[in-house]
Amino acid sequence: MNILTGNDLKTGDVVWWTGEAWSRHVSDAAEMGENAPDVMAREIAARTVSDCYLVDAERTAEGILPVHIKEKIRATGPTVRPDLKLAPPDPAAGNWVI
Amino acid sequence: MYKYDNYDQQMVDTRVAEFRDQVERRLAGKITEDQFKPLRLKNGLYLQLHAYMLRVAVPYGTLNSEQMRMLAHIARKYDRDYGHFTTRQNIQYNWIKLEDAPDILADLATVEMHAIQTSGNCIRNISSDQYAGAAADELVDPRPYAELLRQWSSFHPEFNYLPRKFKFAVIAADEDRAAMRLHDIGIQIVKNDTGEIGARYYAGGGMGRTPMIAPLIRDFVPIAELISYAEAILRVYNRYGRRDNKFKARIKILVHEMGAEPFIAEVEEEFKHLKGLNIDAPAAELERIKAYFADPLFEAGLPDEIDRSDPDFAVWLDQNTHPHKRPGYAVAVISLKPTDGIPGDASSAQIDLMADLAEEYSFDELRVTHAQNIVLPHVKKADLYAIWQKLDAAGLATPNLDLISDIIACPGLDYCSLANARSIPVAQKIAKRFADIDRQKELGELKLKISGCINACGHHHAGHIGILGVDRKGTENYQLLLGGSGAEDVSLAKITGPGFDEDGIVDAVEKVTEVYLGAREEGERFVDTYRRVGIDPFKEALYG
């Protein structure tokens, strides 16, 4: 499956397309399917998120996660500074730190 | 150290105002990211893995305490309370918000700092010897010449869109502490047979995907023609450097493909043409700059004896200080490589402390090293114990300078969007494996350098032991290299063979150190033994 990501223009935060809006949490990401080109074109035109692109992802026990390690780290924060990692929206969702 | 004149300050202030306007237009949606990206990069603002990253220039690695405190202030106010000192003697902040960037640059401008030309295909921050002005072995202080080059290269209209980025290093000692010959241009300030000061020019060095050692281009350029000769090299590069292929665009490729002799002939021809144009700074301007780098008011008659009764202090003293040119003084190096830390990272409190120490003990001066440590260049030997106590209390007294745990590591995949593998966790595991300081000292000088991708920001080609992280079918994999050096015995490391996983590379490093311990002869460093015995015994131990 593909999910859509980018960086928030103002903050630079990594964000994920939920189907309606952008979320900081990859677990909120929506599968893009055939909608991807239309959504990307619209969001790039809106100029609130930079560098939009699609990412390979999979459903896991912890929810949707990118497949590649780079995107996993991008989604969660540096592996070497637990204090800087993005807290999961649901603390019960477990720790999928790499 | 150098103080801005009205022109310097006006240039920086004007750039802040210009960038504020550009950011406002971007945030208002008046310009696209494609239009904005080159503008933000001109101000050192990248979009990295997690957020915007700002790279702040520290010219030739020299700072005063006020500037250092400003770096702490930025970390505290605008970032996540820490900064990362880099292999270009700069500092980077990893969690910057675009809307804050103009205010950060305005704050920096109040202490004569900026982020101009820390990105893009232009002449980047000039690097130098971190012991400049203090080292016992230097001919002269190289920083006035680095400053002259900084002024010449700042906003140079002809060299703002080079084929690729361009890096200078300037040294003035035979011991190369700045990896000078691994730069696009490396300059050693030398004296000729008649006692005249001049510049020995090397060009076409670099690391990255195609590492090259810069060949000698000219043995002696009179110092009055320092800028003309640099201009001649840059003009030849600008004319012939490739713009069709980013990976073949650095000057090292041009020098290699053209051949050193034909390249030199082109430079000399251009130099002849430039000689009549009077582009060099007048002697008075160089003297004006030199005055800013005059020695501080060193005291005479200070004792050289140091009380070594505290054994922990004695270990640090032996490892982390360097001879100073004046009796009674020493150069103290603050390691930013604690065993569980991140190479080059310092918290705002630590940065403030280092500023305080500089102000109290080191004539208000600090240096950033390309090995990602901080230097207090001029401290009285009698003050070293007090300095060590304060460093120790702040977690800054790791006694590992130039030992195996004094690791250069790029940010790697934890922060960098270009990286293929993480560097920092590997550095931490190696530091932990060799945490015993006695074991490290037994191994002696051993420069270990880790890059998370082929761009080689972690200088793995120049490591006695180098590690290169690669992406192997979506998994991090680490290649081991041996035999590199960025010093005066410059050499490029060679890959040993197939790579290892994250734990395997730590075992591999341990194995090669064991080969060294078994084979070394009296007085040999790791790299000396490697050069004498060759790669085979190491490969045998690694791959059997």
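qc> Chain A touches chain B at residues 7, 9-14, 44, 46-48, 50-51, 67-70, 73-74, 77-81, 84 (CB under 8 Å).
qc> done
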